[in-house]
């Protein structure tokens, strides 16, 4: 039996045990995991150094090295995330509905664990801890398949988590790490119907596309964001400037950052110039439509590909549009249904934008950067769903649950 | 452009229009659809006769002919389903959550249409009408791909529905029928990411398996049901008999019918014999474990395959188990997570069964035949989901919706 199948089978067996573990027992396990991570700091950093050394030998970029590197402070942050998740309310067992039928049967709809969650992700070792904690808190077993660049780190982290679980009521087998770094282990997970109940990819576009296009197991798609901000004719210039700069430049590498700025042609020409200068002052390169380049000789001309590009960088495409209709059409064509914003003082335009734009999160007069489980107050985030089934937008603990109908009768049969 | 891509593109454009159609306008369209179906009864029956003639020429079974055949009464039933769906509450626009954050942004979570639904189904022409009505009521466009055996009928039905829609506010393009009866049109739909938001298969196991294994578009899996009834030692014999006979024989062809009866070894031996005789008297063939065959010399011995078989017929597999643990293990091994029942007077055993059995619907002292959108009081049913994501169990109108976050600010940016 392959490593993937063997570990997924163990996870499925553990999921049945975990289904009967109480909230207090799960929280106790999370706290023990936190304590053990901190106690094992030196060993984890030593394992991390092996990964970093290998990365440097293979010419890993400095920014990737930074994402991979662990310090005592980062390990403490991972431990704190575990303690925070222990404090969150447990959604399992929540009664979502309850009703009786004329024949006397009583039907109750309750939240239950999904079962076994497969996580496929890239470099950052904190995902190993976060995903484990979120899955265990919701009564799910989890099969982790992290990036090969972090393999030593992930293995050592999971060793600590397993040691902690062995002192708890949560079966250690509920947490499985795939150590086969070959692409074949991902391919196998994607087809593991009957053992994995869902696969969640977290990482770059090529990872997500591979999962979506090849999985036969149900997928929760996360990630891609070509997000727009539309500055309407009536937008307050100071607000438009503040929101656009924040959406683009506060952290350009993330999926909820703005990639395209749309500006109403009737927005004041001086205000437009100041808006563009503010972006430029924040270090942002502007790639504009013909009218933009006419107004801003220093801007680069946008190519056809620019409108569909998620730069994840200090670059923005900028288009001057004739009005709300053209803005909506542009977003319909190029948006990825993640986060979209209108800055306007016109109430009717705002309502139309919020109604007609088809996206997980639609904003009136606020930065798209708020699309985030913590900013929404969920206390945790397993990812941001860009699909329309099951969960859409920031996913907190309830996104890791399913439901079950419990029906109570006293001998009812169907006529 | 292929027929599938062309029609899906039209459907997607129509979905954007439909998103702005009011509940009253949608209900008006549904009533018009009902009126037109009844008015076109003769033409629909003439088209249906072409399909039936072709079926008879090709040796179609009598039961399939019966499923395909339309009569004025059946067309009236289809029209009545449309009128009933018009009467149901519209879930679109429902506010599911609303909260403010410390920075002053207000977040509202509302129900929105999914977008474009692909339906892939087999012979019964009423699915053409039901699926159209349920999708349009929830603001979704729909691309229908029915079985080739019903192609003339479906085309004529859709012609009537289109005529009705042209007199309404719902765009006729929101309803598309694929007329290419070749398997290639199904294959193309399964890969139509970006145009179809979900594919829902309805039909036999091979149709569903093909969709699940080959779709890159998200799927809602429906259908397969190897459902069990466990008669515990303390079960009331009259209730056990009534539930078992109902679950098996009231309508054996459906997915919520019982396929395997599990009986506690300590259930009274005389009661056991009477239970088996009651099934036999209802025309049910029993395929039993060794102990069953020892007790009932007239029963056939079950083979290994019997335990995983969905007979959809007057056949049941019967196993005598040592107790609740063995019953739970059997269901874990062979169940399809559809509907499972315990008949018992022991409260602790009932609660343990309802807690531990992993299925869409778990019953205490009631027939599994109640797993149905109408029996649950939903007023409609698009299918019964046997997956754990998005929807589980009978799917009413809310299962055909997604959600969207609307965020209202006054200039908030992220720090």
Question: What does this 3D model show about the protein?
Answer:
Two copies of one chain form a homodimer. Chain A has 415 residues and is of the alpha/beta class. Chain A folds into two domains: 3-221 and 390-408, Aldehyde Dehydrogenase, Chain A, domain 1, CATH 3.40.605; 227-370, Aldehyde Dehydrogenase, Chain A, domain 2 (3-Layer(aba) Sandwich). Chain A has 14 helices and 16 strands. In chain A, the strands form four sheets. Chain A has a seven-stranded parallel β-sheet, with helices on both faces. In chain A, α2 crosses α7 (151-165). The mean pLDDT of chain A is 96. At the A-B interface, α10, α14, β13 and β16 of A face α10, α14, β13 and β16 of B. β13 of chain A pairs parallel with β16 (401-412) of chain B.
* CATH class group of the largest domain in chain A: Alpha Beta
Give the overall pLDDT of chain A as a whole number. 96
Strand element count of chain A:
16
Write down the Rg of chain A: 24 Å
- CATH-defined fold name of the largest domain in chain A: Aldehyde Dehydrogenase, Chain A, domain 1
Alpha-beta content class of chain A: alpha/beta
Q: Give the number of domains of chain A.
A: 2
* Helix content bin of chain A: 40-55%
Side by side, the strands of the main sheet of chain A go: 10-9-11-8-7-12-13
Topology:
Two copies of one chain form a homodimer.
Chain A: H1 3-18, H2 23-39, H3 41-57, H4 62-68, H5 72-87, E1 95-100, E2 106-113, E3 116-121, H6 126-137, E4 141-145, H7 151-165, E5 175-177, H8 183-190, E6 198-202, H9 205-214, E7 227-231, H10 237-249, E8 258-264, H11 269-281, E9 285-288, H12 290-295, E10 300-301, E11 315-321, H13 324-334, E12 339-343, H14 347-356, E13 361-366, E14 383-385, E15 393-395, E16 401-412
Parallel strand pairs in A: 3-4, 3-6, 4-5, 7-8, 7-12, 8-11, 9-10, 9-11, 12-13
Antiparallel strand pairs in A: 1-2, 2-16, 14-15
